[in-house]
Amino acid sequence: MKYSFKNDYSEIGHPDVLDALSSIGSKQYDGYGIDEHCSKAAELIKKKLNAPKAEVHFLPAGTIANLTFISSVLKPHEAVIAPLSGHIAVHETGAIEATGHKICTREGVLGKLTIADIESVLLEHKDEHMVKPRLVYISLPTECGTVYTKEELSDIYDFCRDFDLYLYIDGARLGAAINSPECDIAYNDIARLSDAFFIGGTKNGAIYGEAVVICNDSLKADFRYIMKQRGALHAKGFAIGAQFAELFAKNESKTEPQAACLYDSLAIHSITMAKMIAHGIHSLGYDFLYPVQTNIIIPVLPTTIVERLHKDYLFSEWERFDDMVAIRLVTSWATPMSAVEDFISDITRYK
Amino acid sequence: MKYSFKNDYSEIGHPDVLDALSSIGSKQYDGYGIDEHCSKAAELIKKKLNAPKAEVHFLPAGTIANLTFISSVLKPHEAVIAPLSGHIAVHETGAIEATGHKICTREGVLGKLTIADIESVLLEHKDEHMVKPRLVYISLPTECGTVYTKEELSDIYDFCRDFDLYLYIDGARLGAAINSPECDIAYNDIARLSDAFFIGGTKNGAIYGEAVVICNDSLKADFRYIMKQRGALHAKGFAIGAQFAELFAKNESKTEPQAACLYDSLAIHSITMAKMIAHGIHSLGYDFLYPVQTNIIIPVLPTTIVERLHKDYLFSEWERFDDMVAIRLVTSWATPMSAVEDFISDITRYK
Amino acid sequence: MKYSFKNDYSEIGHPDVLDALSSIGSKQYDGYGIDEHCSKAAELIKKKLNAPKAEVHFLPAGTIANLTFISSVLKPHEAVIAPLSGHIAVHETGAIEATGHKICTREGVLGKLTIADIESVLLEHKDEHMVKPRLVYISLPTECGTVYTKEELSDIYDFCRDFDLYLYIDGARLGAAINSPECDIAYNDIARLSDAFFIGGTKNGAIYGEAVVICNDSLKADFRYIMKQRGALHAKGFAIGAQFAELFAKNESKTEPQAACLYDSLAIHSITMAKMIAHGIHSLGYDFLYPVQTNIIIPVLPTTIVERLHKDYLFSEWERFDDMVAIRLVTSWATPMSAVEDFISDITRYK
Amino acid sequence: MKYSFKNDYSEIGHPDVLDALSSIGSKQYDGYGIDEHCSKAAELIKKKLNAPKAEVHFLPAGTIANLTFISSVLKPHEAVIAPLSGHIAVHETGAIEATGHKICTREGVLGKLTIADIESVLLEHKDEHMVKPRLVYISLPTECGTVYTKEELSDIYDFCRDFDLYLYIDGARLGAAINSPECDIAYNDIARLSDAFFIGGTKNGAIYGEAVVICNDSLKADFRYIMKQRGALHAKGFAIGAQFAELFAKNESKTEPQAACLYDSLAIHSITMAKMIAHGIHSLGYDFLYPVQTNIIIPVLPTTIVERLHKDYLFSEWERFDDMVAIRLVTSWATPMSAVEDFISDITRYK
Q1: What confidence tens digit (pLDDT) does each residue in D225-242 have?
Q2: A93 Cβ under 8 Å from any chain B Cβ
Q3: Interface A-C: count of C-beta contacts within 8 A
Q4: Are C97 and B93 within 8 A, CB to CB?
């Protein structure tokens, strides 16, 4: 059996999360997210974010979270600005366009959108013959595993407010950014520095589910209608709520509102595993396409080594350069130390 | 704590289903429904349906199953024919229209669409100034809990083929229809007598998930693209597959391919509970708006009794008539016999 | 050559309108409706409506006017309320649904929507599982040729404001309503008693073009973006503007701001022709499905007479009753008196 | 009064076209494009194209022609491949995305898409997480006024057929390409080498209207439904038909089926005017961003000269380079020789 470093959603979910579901037993709940688990989870999240007025909704998955929120906000002629590598721009089968909106992309730097990128889109779109850019989409961390700094995020958000743009953050791996040593953005910064974002459960311990957090008051109205219309309002919303309540439970301690909860410790584990792999590869003298800041490692290795690694590990190839290949390794909350050690030992041996 | 007869999705899921998820442990699977659980579940379902060539996809919920399938099939000007009470026509916040398609409704009889209904829609739509009806949507059972007979279904399907219409069945409660004593439609009839349908998990033992079954070869191509685009392709598809594998597992016995699996026994329980309630109410001399054929009971009771029932039970009111009210009671795989007995005893006492 | 009473768009356009186009010669204009003809036409219309703050846009045709305006106003989950016979509900091939919005229909009375109709739609739609009705669509005159009274319109508009609904009027034949002796609604009432409407050119003297008038300030922003996106912003917008400038030119006299312009006199002619036909038919003892209030006549005639009329005239059949048929006759600005006289004489002869 | 070289739709239409409309008089026609003018125009066009089986539809304008055709052809997950400068990719306010489809752009060469461009899009889109490219959109001539050669077009079409892609040509200025001395594509090549295209009327003598020609049999069904749904089926279709019948009338001579019709002579005039301007500018030693092959001239001139030209002429600036500016001049069927001479004389003087 090959060990998979292909992604961070290969395992079903953290045992505590599964236990939380099992322990519900035969209790009855109201449907569609109006229940005690969802409201407890929402409270925990709002406390963690220090955002008492935010609205928290639990949606089943990432693509539907993105398309539901974005389509709830934009008028027909309004468009999204996103980095070229943005998940919505590449890997969601045109989900945003299917709701009627164009995505204007820019290359960015290390997977991150810059203010210059956003500005250049605005300058290009000047009248009614072109779409009107209205929402900036970024991912934290990016698809390359890199993180924005607090200053970068703050500058982007300021720019957005100055030019009447919404800032929306795809947080499918948000835990890995916030808990990254290279990222100085804390939970209480996110809600301050964006109009809305989602906290990804699927890639950090949950079986399924993401928490969409709407910070901007003007974007809150009727969001549940759009959820229902897009198929994102699950009958058993409480099953998602219960998972998030478990992931954010440790936060209940009033004396340490920012203490690490399960969601954090899982993210920290995945980052640690990634850093170990990166350290091992770096020691062998190989380089990386992107700095390893979260749980994604993209080293450039000799093709000969990569071919041997394929025998025992699953991972994807990112880009080929002559006799070298950049490969993409992803660690997760579930990656055992032993798999990391085996991998480093194998790669060392193959050198 | 009031006992809820409001719906059949108040409880999280059958313990065996939860155990199936928990027992997955830390095993790794490929994402997006390409895994052994999904393929095992698909095989079990196809065997049960006697439809070896059908394509089975696991989607997270009912509304998204409906909108994903229907929008994958229709061209922009093509429309749906549905009963006035059809879930997509009323309770899905315009999800089908949001994908661009009109729904043409007809009153139907006992919640069921008739061939005369379908024909009258066709007669009304005769040129390019009107939409072109292309897909007939029915629910089995209907929103009123009633079932089509095999002859009715067969006639509708024949009519559809004669007039180049697709027949799609919303099977959110399919188990309750197939296992209903009033319904002579068997699993192996469904796939024969429709172009596509879904087998509802959420309302019959699963935490979440529906199995969309595409029988018509011409509708199979690229369905996974549309799933991804609509946000219905879950990263951890295996978690839905594992639930359906459990629900349909007993079917593995080759000697008894139609033996009741967990999915059947859960449906049978919910029907039995409904029949008991119906019997109790009937004994007291009250009547029903619709025959009780599955797990939905819609009796017409004196307002005074209904008011007293509200103190101890949750249920919805359907329609008011002077001093009588039709209420809607729903039983489920989880409804305990004791709740049924209490309810009958209370209503008897209140009379 | 049969004379056609099938509709009011069989002739290309009034000679004065064609002359207005021809007289433009080789003069150059800016594109997309930013030109002197459009601004002159807009000024004439606003003066006529006594609505100096209204915004007037010139669109090429009726269906695109409806879909452009309605889709510019509604959020994804918001729906339209319309009479069952409403043009958008029947004869626009699902154009509104194609922009993502459901239309909730009610039977109405004589083709007219009542407050009770609107109220019943609101009562039925009460939570996020259903669409949110937000815009009331009526036609003036209706598809049956009937008109609302000023009191009816005023009551509907008051109701709309009380329940946060927009009122939009399809005025494809607006001239025939305003100039109808049975309609006490004047030009200056329309803009006061609706959020937006369009003044139909195609059916009253223009070759093509409708003037969309937006009265509600909150609906004005970015309308030209949506026009462009839907394909309704014509490069040679000035050609539509020039037609409307001609149709509304007589209004320039400051002393008689409400004096009949060409648009009015054409409408008056079509009504007069309709009234003559109605009078002739009534004299013969036949009845009508709807009162003849504008330029549409729907008499119920013996099948034998209708069959003979088909030899010399084009018209459509509306509904069959045993040995009687309701037929639909439409007069226009171009209908010659002689055709009306011939028709009456023939029908008299056939009796 | 400044003379405008801003575009080729500043003048209302050729006098013969206006006369054709006026000469219709009070004759009555059936609506929606089912009339003798449309069928005569369609016959003339099919003869000119040597494409007897093609289907010809008359639509009111270019953006709506593009969105109507493209949305009639694609399934929800299918996408368009277009050059970065493609009109649908930039200047139609997201019209294609508003119908649900992504546009994948490539830089191209001289505004032209290459096979390498198309291939690179295909290579990038390999599974259901990405849209499926299905239709190649090119403009002939391009937005930069350049033309494809017959070999280039033929190669692209072959490539498209090999990879199951449709080829659609935006022919807003088709006449200027076909009549360009640099373009060896003839009318009878276009229909052979594409699945569909449109022949632009608005920019070459008509007041409004484009002729969409569908060559691929599999794309013909139900096109009129989509036309109606998008608002492109005009009540007075005959008014567009009559314009095209006039523009293509000379073609009626059976002995010279390819003889120049009005449509050709107007295009030839606009090209001649452009060539004269280009020659004049070239004589002064200035260069061009793109070869002048049709009726668009994009010279790079000193800023000082451009500033003086702005006093007497309208034109747009394309790109700035230090003390030089690329400006965009467009000639048309209506551009008088005198305006061209004045312009050259002025620019010579300003040097």
Answers
A1: 999 999 999 999 999 999
A2: yes
A3: 51
A4: no
The C-alpha angle with vertex B141 and arms to B139 and B147, in degrees rounded to 5, equals: 115
**Is the domain D15-252 a CATH 1.10.10.10 member?**
no
Contact D77 A93 (CB under 8 A): yes
Q: What proportions of chain D, in percent to the nearest 5, are helix, strand and coil?
A: 40, 20, 40
What are the structural domain ranges in chain C?
3-9+262-350, 15-252
Rounded CA-CA distance D78/D5 in Å is 38
Residues of D in contact with C336 (CB under 8 A): 26
Q: If we measure between CA atoms, which residue out of D203, D237, D218, D94 comes closest to residue D164?
A: D218
Tell me the three state secondary structure of residue D149: coil
Scanning every residue of chain B, which has its alpha carbon at the shortest distance from the alpha carbon of C89? B130
Q: Which pairing describes strands D132-139 and D78-83: parallel, antiparallel, or unpaired? A: parallel
Rounded-to-integer distance, Cα A89 and Cα C102, Å: 29
Q: Where are the alpha helices (DSSP H) in B163-302?
A: 174-178, 187-190, 223-230, 237-247, 262-283
CA C125, C129, C132, C137 dihedral sign is negative
User: In chain C, where do the E strands start and end?
Assistant: 3-4, 55-59, 78-83, 103-106, 132-139, 166-170, 196-200, 210-214, 287-288, 296-297, 299-302, 313-314, 316-321, 324-330
Cβ atoms of C133 and C121 closer than 8 Å: yes
Residues D40-96 have pLDDT tens digits of 999 999 999 999 999 999 999 999 999 999 999 999 999 999 999 999 999 999 999
Whether residue A256 is predicted with pLDDT greater than 90 in this model: the reply is: no
| Mean pLDDT across A106-121 | 98
- Helices and strands of chain C, counted as H and E runs: 14, 14
Angle at C300 between CA C299 and CA C306, to 5 degrees: 95
Q: Does A274 touch chain C (CB under 8 A)?
A: no
Among A25, A63, A233, whose Cβ lies nearest the Cβ of B231?
Answer: A63
In terms of CA atoms, which chain A residue is nearest residue B3? A28
Residues of chain D with Cβ-Cβ distance to C18 below 8 Å are 18, 21-22
Would the CATH topology of A3-9+262-350 be identical to that of A15-252? Answer: no
**Closest residue to B91, CB basis, from C97, C100, C129:** C129
CA distance D68 to chain B (A): 10
* C88/C82 Cα distance (integer angstroms): 8
8-state DSSP, C231: T
Pick out chain C residues at pLDDT < 70: 251-259
> Which residues between 200 and 239 in chain A have a beta carbon less than 8 angstroms from any beta carbon of chain B?
202-203, 207-208, 225-226, 228-236, 238-239
Buried b (16+ CB within 10 A) or exposed e, C252-262: eeeeeeeeebb
CATH second-level architecture of A3-9+262-350?
Alpha-Beta Complex (3.90)
Helix/strand/coil for D302 = strand
Distance CA B61, CA B51 (A): 23
Q: Which chain A residue has the Cα nearest residue B60?
A: A60
User: What DSSP string describes B283-350?
Assistant: HTT-EESS---SSEE-EEEEHHHHHHHHHHEE-EEEEEETTEEEEEEE--TT--HHHHHHHHHHHHHH
Q: Which of A73, A78, A71, A76 shows the shortest CA–CA distance to A131?
A: A78
Q: How far is residue A301 from each of residues A110, A315, B62, B154, measured CA to CA in Å?
A: 19, 13, 46, 61
- What does the pLDDT read at residue B333? 97
Q: Which long-range contacts (CB under 8 A, 24 or more apart) does B157-163 make?
A: B157/B193, B157/B194, B159/B115, B159/B118, B159/B119, B160/B118, B160/B136, B160/B195, B163/B118, B163/B122
Position D97 scores a pLDDT of: 98
Interior CA angle at C232 toward C230 and C238, to 5°?
A: 160
Q: What is the CA radius of gyration of chain A?
A: 20
Helices (H), D179-261: 187-190, 223-230, 237-247
Of C62, A233, A141, nearest in space to B95 by CA: A233
